[in-house]
């Protein structure tokens, strides 16, 4: 099992994000991830916070401050940027990191932000499907061409392509707390792993079973992965019956991870508790010292 942490960049300075990324590598985590907004409308500010650095610029910086740990988006909102711009930014991060980039994507949820960006909210799923195909085409051809509804292009080079071949892993997120059928379909058809947010363990198992069945029906010969994202709530006392997934003592959380591992998932990503940076570091340290050995 691999372990990653999501940096709460909406309440961190760049220096604090750097501190957490460097510490994660020192502690032998496998990945650090950052989310994405461009305009923090009231719904985004209330649920998260007001400050949203550009994810690609930040990840390139963090890649330069680390040497081993993977750097990824969790998740970039795919319709917010022209797909070739996204493809170039992501490929550059993968090159700068020496092939350590993970491309987590979502379709977005804040309708007011779409309005400010001049984008059609109700077309975000259709846009994302085409954008994914464009990005994959750009990443896998020296002179890519594409004829689509939103974009058509040909006759130009695309370089640098990503360091990873054929391309960086593509993870697909979905709406928090639910099994997103479009996200599951998107993974089965186009991508490498499902990256659901805040699911119960029962829903995670149900969704992953559905994904594998759908991928098989679509003729996917290679396996599809699962990399859940959940809040890590490591406590001193047992949470007991009825607790949320990944909440409780080290042994309780280890049991949750063992169940996830038995489902076939091989990567866990965690949101850190809403505490100051030293408190987040303490949680990261406790996880690696107490939970990871208990998983086995």
Would you mind describing this structure in some detail?
There is one protein chain. Helices cover 43% and strands 15% of the residues. It is α/β, with parallel strands linked by helices and 296 residues long. α4 (83-96) packs across α6, α7 crosses α8 (201-217) and α9 (250-263) packs across α10. The model has no long low-confidence stretch (mean pLDDT 96).
Which keywords apply here?
10 helices; alpha/beta
SSE map:
Layout: E1 2-6, H1 14-26, E2 31-34, H2 42-47, H3 55-64, E3 70-73, E4 76-77, H4 83-96, E5 101-106, H5 111-116, H6 124-140, E6 146-147, E7 152-153, E8 170-172, H7 181-190, E9 193-194, H8 201-217, E10 225-226, E11 229-231, E12 233-234, E13 247-248, H9 250-263, E14 267-271, H10 277-295
Helix pairs in contact: 1-10, 3-4, 4-6, 7-8, 8-9, 9-10
- How far is the first residue's CA from the last residue's CA? 9 Å
- SS content category: alpha/beta
Major beta sheet, specifics?
Answer: 10 strands, parallel
Q: Name the poorly predicted regions.
A: none
Number of strands: 14
Give the oligomeric state.
Answer: single chain
Number of helices: 10
Shape: globular
Order of helices and strands: EHEHHEEHEHHEEEHEHEEEEHEH
**Rg (C-alpha, Å):** 19 Å
Strand content: 5-15%
Roughly how much helix do the residues carry, as a percent range? 40-55%
Residue-averaged pLDDT: 96
């Amino acid at each position: 099992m691999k372990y990653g942490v999501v940096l709460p960049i909406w309440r961190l300075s760049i220096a604090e994000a750097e501190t957490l990324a460097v510490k994660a590598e020192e502690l032998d985590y496998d990945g650090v991830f950052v989310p994405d907004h461009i305009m923090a409308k009231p719904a985004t500010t209330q649920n998260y916070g007001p400050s949203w650095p550009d994810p690609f610029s930040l990840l390139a910086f963090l890649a330069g401050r680390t040497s081993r740990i993977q750097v990824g988006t969790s998740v970039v909102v795919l319709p917010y940027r022209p797909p070739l711009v996204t493809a170039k930014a992501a490929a550059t991060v993968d090159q700068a990191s020496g092939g350590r980039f993970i491309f987590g994507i979502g379709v977005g949820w804040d309708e007011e932000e779409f309005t400010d960006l001049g984008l059609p909210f109700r077309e975000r799923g259709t846009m994302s499907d085409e954008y994914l195909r464009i990005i994959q085409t750009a990443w896998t051809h020296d002179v890519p061409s594409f004829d689509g509804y939103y974009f058509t292009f040909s006759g130009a080079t695309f370089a640098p392509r990503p360091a990873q071949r054929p391309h960086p892993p593509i993870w697909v997120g979905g709406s928090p707390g639910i099994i997103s059928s479009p996200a599951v379909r998107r993974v089965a058809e186009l991508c490498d792993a499902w990256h659901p947010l805040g699911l119960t363990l029962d829903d995670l198992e149900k969704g992953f079973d559905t994904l594998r069945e759908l991928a098989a029906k679509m003729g996917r010969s290679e396996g599809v992965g699962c990399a859940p994202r959940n809040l890590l709530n490591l406590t001193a006392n047992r949470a007991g019956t009825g607790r949320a997934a990944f909440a409780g003592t080290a042994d309780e959380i280890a049991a949750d991870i063992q169940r996830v591992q038995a489902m076939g998932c091989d990567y866990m990503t965690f949101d850190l508790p809403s505490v100051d940076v030293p408190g987040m570091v303490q949680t990261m340290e406790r996880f690696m010292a107490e939970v990871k050995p208990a998983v086995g």
